[in-house]
Amino acid sequence: MMTHLTLIVPFSVPPGAGDDGRDDVVPGALLRQLELPALGKLLTRAEPGPRERHDDPFLRSLPQERWLAGKAGLDTARVPLAPYMRLADSGATAPATADGQAWACLQPVHIHAARDHLVLMPPAQLGIRPEEAAALHAAIDGLLQESGIALETPSTSRWYLPEAVFGPLEATTPLRAAGRNIDIWMQAGERARDWRRIQNEIQMTWYDHPVNQAREAAREPSINSVWLYGGGTLQPVPRLADTVLSGDPFLSGLALAAGSRVLPVPAGLAGTAGLEGSVLAMLDHATEAHIFEDWGLWLDRMHALDADWFGPALDALAAGQIGAVTLVLGGENHFAEFTVRRADLRKFWRGMGARGDWRALLSDLAFAA
């Protein structure tokens, strides 16, 4: 039996009025078009758990990263993503031991010019091929060696270097900065100028590289820069679940460090048949649609999540096949946690009055708390 199912659902909350200069037209229209009967029942019957409350719209990490860091006992102000992503990218099959080495992630990215600012593309959209990554790395290898930088490349899309090369920097998760003016999200710190010099030299080396010539000829975005972030040291972490379903490298690394089983995310809850104990899944289906404000696609993705995950979870909970369901919902700036058990489903009075308005709950989560 699955004793506890935790579903982390990033960018599942509509934007709040006033976010990035929005008025209340888009949030209100989205809420009216959302049809999430299963999620609505789970939310209105659940016991609210920890909720992030702050008024800082410029935190450099994502809400789900801070939630995971908090659960793992890590720093939530400066989430150490890189050492755990490196663990996941290395293909580790056993729990890791802390070695005291601090790492940062160097990620090949695409940055393009908008009307009056530069915009970072979500890295996953680049689809970097192994041969492209190898050629681009070879092109900057001499530059890195001259600067005393030993680079590890266990993944085509994420490379790693000792954090000591540039020292601790204030740095932003690429997906946090994606689709926005990157000026306020750039790396800052005592040695940020040293980092900027290397970044500029890499950009110049790659500008007219054959890899990018070929990509541009194929109408693909060029790989024209790098983004440094996630610095920190690998530390022992508790097991968040017996089984973790994730394509997210930070969550996968946390799971591997704690000795959890890591599996790909199935198409729906039906794909978890046979899993026992506690299960945690990262459902990031709506993320890029939210970032690019493709609200039609976002609605489609949310409706699919209700059909494929929330509805089956509600049915399994009612049938006693799952002991409890925890939902971790996130927007652009905050997360909130809700847990519902089978007995909670019988508390019909929770679905009455103001508490029974699940759209109001989502709307409330969209605003700075």
Explained architecture:
This protein has 369 residues and is of the alpha/beta class. The protein has two domains: 2-71 and 239-366; 102-232, no CATH class. The protein has helices at residues 25-33, 37-45, 63-71, 81-89, 130-146, 174-177, 192-207, 210-217, 249-258, 287-291, 295-318, 358-366, and strands at residues 2-9, 47-51, 102-109, 111-113, 118-120, 159-162, 225-233, 243-245, 261-263, 277-282, 324-330, 335-341. The strands form three sheets. A seven-stranded mixed sheet has the order 2-12-11-1-10-8-9, with helices on both faces. The radius of gyration is 21 Å and the shape is globular. The model has no long low-confidence stretch (mean pLDDT 92).
Largest sheet: 7 strands, mixed
Oligomer: single chain
What's the count of strands?
A: 12
Give the helix level as a range of percent.
Answer: 25-40%
How does the SSE layout of this entry go?
Layout: E1 2-9, H1 25-33, H2 37-45, E2 47-51, H3 63-71, H4 81-89, E3 102-109, E4 111-113, E5 118-120, H5 130-146, E6 159-162, H6 174-177, H7 192-207, H8 210-217, E7 225-233, E8 243-245, H9 249-258, E9 261-263, E10 277-282, H10 287-291, H11 295-318, E11 324-330, E12 335-341, H12 358-366
Parallel strand pairs: 1-10, 1-11, 8-9, 8-10
Antiparallel strand pairs: 2-12, 3-6, 3-7, 4-5, 11-12
Helix pairs in contact: 2-11, 4-9, 5-7
